[in-house]
């Protein structure tokens, strides 16, 4: 896990005073600069050693909790790898005073969000909830930290082993390049180094985990004296201190955990390894140099170095590899620092059939060019200009603040360490950059991995040695791995001074739709805005109807390529000059094509709104149409499309949509196109699309941030006068008759460790008045981990890492979709369970379910619209679907009026199981017969492009 806000330019001063709890409390003073940003906090330590950081933020009626445990995979033993992450999963199961499953189910039903993550050095648990659930999170969090170990059972252990194994399969074993990190760690670090293994661990180690292991790990590392608790949001400091003492103060102190000293990798010679990847379609080369641990001042110079080497078009690695030798669509350089050591990474995912030996030579040439040519002061200025924006973006939400402060307190002993990081990053000099280059990269040993598609050993770097990795063998049948919750543990509750039963809700917070202003310009452009002063940033976009929907069918991908071309310079600026102009403002600007829009999106400091908008206008109205850039983009697109063939979820989704929309509807083809449809696209095609479809008629500007309507209006005047309106024809495409319900389609991915399932049907348009009802009806089925799909397939059965459903929203008729990735040998059983669940969902929907859904939706509204991006989403829905500015309140009224019969009727109309299409992408050799049993006589075998195989 990287701390991306280290490059942050904000100076916060700190003052000290004494806490009522006896320890020193630090509280940064208010910043004095007009444009500065304060992150005040109070810190105290309980007698049991728990360090607590409190931060007030009354901008929204929500509260975030972050508990950071100072234990990660670096505390594991060989043969028991993956245990820190596995224990994170176990911690979400049960505790002494909370009901079974409460941690995974109730928080979402309270309108909140929760999760956890583990990395090399630590584990963090976090929640963000409406403030009425404040006491409930105090209860459930403290119970997890102090009172969970007695509830662990052998059955729960066995179930969670399967869940974590499914996570490993989904994120590592069943994806391209998933074994690269394992190869790297085995060869970069000695066998006895805590970073010699991956955080996820190995499948055999996970399978061997025992109850005794869980208990030993808890007692050794999960004491409150090895943790930081951060509470941020709409809180009262004095009241919160008292509640923390009540709920967390009685937790027993754990044994002292001896700190680990920094230990660099100690690599003495370069190692070159290769691996044939079953899923990869593109060759990838990675060079990893040992560097330095986090919080060391060299990390900031190394981060700047990474940007100078590969961060933009003028960087030497990009110039050599992408522009001159045309070996790859991009190149990446990253500095990754952990508690004990660091890694400096160079990575290139090359074009198809490209020699990695040639890529390696190009990297060496790029590095040599850096040594001889150096870099300009402008390059340093560009990096520094982005620092302030990065800081504000990194602490935009109360949750992001809580997590940042928690990690920095636990590992840097300073909740506001971000301030020191800012000063150190801004202080990086030319001499610092060259010093760390010479110290960590020039002439130094590294680990190099050549990962190539299966059967393409000819592409590896010369002399590379075959890497050794463990690969699970796929077998048919569930193999007695059908696990469940099992019986509840029998134990004697821990005696406590305070009552630890569930507290009631506090006063219900009211969700308030932010004040929205709107106007229309003379050229037909509509403007919508929200003045929001929480951070000194502005997020905005220009959204133009059309996008992929206006693509010629035979040249699908035209809109996407055209959108990318708008970022490749302007009539008066080369691509490099445009990039530099954006960077020097500390801004980001992107142009994307969606199914139904072209969107120019930007984010900048509020004071730089006008010049950033001027660049957006220049890009939009004065495209460069550079032939060389078009050729580069087409080559890059071909590479990316080839790479997508390795993504089983992408293959499943695209074939699912092709079946629903048919071959003659544009939405049955990917928005980025296919290798076939994009091959013939010319630069003239892009110009034709632009001249025909890019118009302010029907378009809208959406603005959210620290800016008022008058300032926006003044900045938009040039766009109003220079962008002339024209009529754009929006054709009506024919939706084919939906006659495939009940059919099952199978796509073979040999040796796949999981099967990807996509299930659904075309349901309704975003303009349909039933859209909100359908969304509400889906809430308990698959909207989050508390939904029945995840509760059944993950919590009860251990078949998957997660299963979800959604009702999509667009002007064209959109699908209702159920999707998941399940353990390969549980494919047939999972399909049957999903069928039964969907069949019974409507008929069994009860009055209790209706109230649960209503409560969950109403309360979650207090936090789902917190960020600038979420507020932009409100404005986009208003403009696209011609909604009232108060549509969210109208939706809530509609929700509260829904009866059980309304829920059941909506489910029956838009989610009927007998009308759904099933797509399965998995290992045919072991799973095809199981799928045929599920749907006898109705299974069609397809290739990856959707063509039937006889």
UniProtKB/TrEMBL annotation:
Q: What is the lineage of its organism?
A: Bacteria, Pseudomonadati, Bacteroidota, Cytophagia, Cytophagales
| Family annotation (InterPro entries) | Metalloenz_LuxS/M16, MPP/UQCRC_Complex, Pept_M16_N, Peptidase_M16_C
> Which residues constitute the signal peptide according to the record?
1-22
Report domain Peptidase M16 C-terminal positions.
Answer: 209-386, 681-854
Residue ranges the record marks as coiled coil: none
Family as reported in the entry's similarity comment:
Belongs to the peptidase M16 family.
Q: Which UniProt keywords apply?
A: Signal
Any one Pfam family here would be Peptidase_M16_C
Give the Gene Ontology MF terms in alphabetical order: metal ion binding
Q: Which organism is it from?
A: Hymenobacter telluris
- Return the protein name: Insulinase family protein
**Keyword Disulfide bond included in the entry's annotation:** no
Write down the superkingdom of origin.
Bacteria
Q: Is Ribosomal protein found in the keyword set?
A: no
Q: Which residues form the Peptidase M16 N-terminal domain?
A: 52-167, 535-654
